[in-house]
Amino acid sequence: MLLQAENPAPAEHKKALFVGSDVYREAAFGKHHPLSIIRVAGVMDLCQMLGWFDHEQFRFSPRASVEQLGEFHHADYICALKEADEKGSVSKEVRERYRIGTMENPIFPGLFRRASTSVGGSILAAKLAMEGRVVFHPSGGTHHGRADRASGFCYFNDPVFAILTFLEQGIDRVLYVDLDAHHGDGVQDAFADDDRVMTISIHEEKRWPHSGLVEDRASGSARNLPVPRGFNDSELDYLLDHAVLPLAAKFNPGALVITCGADGLEGDPLSRLSLTNTGLWTAVEKLVQDSKRSVVLGGGGYNPWTVVRCWGGLWGRLSGRPIPEQLPPEARKFLQGFECDLIDEDEVPEDWIFSLADARNEGPVRAEVSRLPGLVLN
Question: Measured between alpha carbons, how far is 8 from 299 in angstroms, rounded to an integer?
Fold first, then answer.
């Protein structure tokens, strides 16, 4: 991947870094899986077309070692996943025990390298953030992974490793904020008994994994804000200002980890929220502006046009680049070439091809949303 310093970041945004890898250019998950679409590779290519990388800001993600993976995941699970990748298949017993080789969590060539690279990237991101940086790692965000099994398209849990790295570096309190459409169950459960970590999750109610009810606080360290269908930008702003930021101020963390899934955007086939990418960008910016050390991860997202535009634009905002009103011809042609089994061609609006920033989806703050801060702040 050739990186060119065509459009260096403004001085005040020089601390922003991007962690990526060419491993995400390789085919994965199988032809008909929701994650078989272009995602992180598309983000890197779009940002390159816009001149938004330079050698000082891009870092290649290393692979996490088996020893590093063992700091959270069980040794037998790590071995089972590695062996499944090498063999290309699993037995019925392994499938049932570790939830790999299923339609949800398929086996594909390069699986172990891809999954361990995601973890390695989050470990690196946290180490780089210790220098007082905001580090964007869009291939991270596998927040459903369990210590002893795969879950929800997630084989390992890289956000857990970002948090663990901060703790190992001497940070005494880490805040985790999950903006994915699905509850960040794997991260919450990993730190349920650790008062050094607070987890906050905004997610669609009554959707898989069907956890994260508003009364669920784990052992006291979690706060959950389940939101209704049609959740809009005004409602996201309201929850940030009246719940998330007050909770963060009270907790006073030394570091921040955000999972910014793109599946809460209007047009995603696996959720029914109505956020825009500009709404998500604003939320992330509000969170990181007062944080000394921040790691921003990707997450879910099953519409290639909305995912690539969201995370590409998020890097632009974090690194201080102006968002163009219209994309250049090269970028338009690139987006026109996307395909997705879950999106019909006639459902692709021109805005997904010609522009980067969505028009905000303003709307009323419904009672189901306005009641939530009072339920989580006490």
Answer: 27
Peptide bond between residue 253 and the one before it cis (omega within 30 degrees of 0): no
**Other CB atoms within 10 A of residue 322 CB:** 10
Token duo for residue 188: 């919450």
What's the rounded Cα separation, in Å, for the pair 341 and 343? 6
Report how far residue 257's alpha carbon sits from residue 199's, in angstroms, rounded to the nearest whole number.
9
164-190 residue pLDDT tens = 999 999 999 999 999 999 999 999 999
User: Which residues touch 286 (CB under 8 Å, ≥6 apart)?
Assistant: 240, 241, 245
Which residues does the annotation mark as catalytic?
A: 144
Q: What is the pLDDT of residues 225-276, one digit of tens each?
A: 999 999 999 999 999 999 999 999 999 999 999 999 999 999 999 999 999 9
Reduced DSSP (H G I as helix, E B as strand, rest coil) percent helix, strand, coil of the chain, to 5: 40, 10, 50
The single residue listed with the structure tokens 């339609």 is 103
Contacts of residue 72, Cβ cutoff 8 Å, sequence gap at least 6: 147, 157, 160, 161, 164, 190
Cα(first)–Cα(last) distance of the chain, in Å? 49
Q: Closest Cα partner for 99 from 3, 215, 186, 19? A: 186
Dump the DSSP string for 212-228. Answer: --TT--TTTTEEEEEE-
Contact 85, 111 (CB under 8 A): yes
Distance CA(132)–CA(50), nearest Å, equals 26
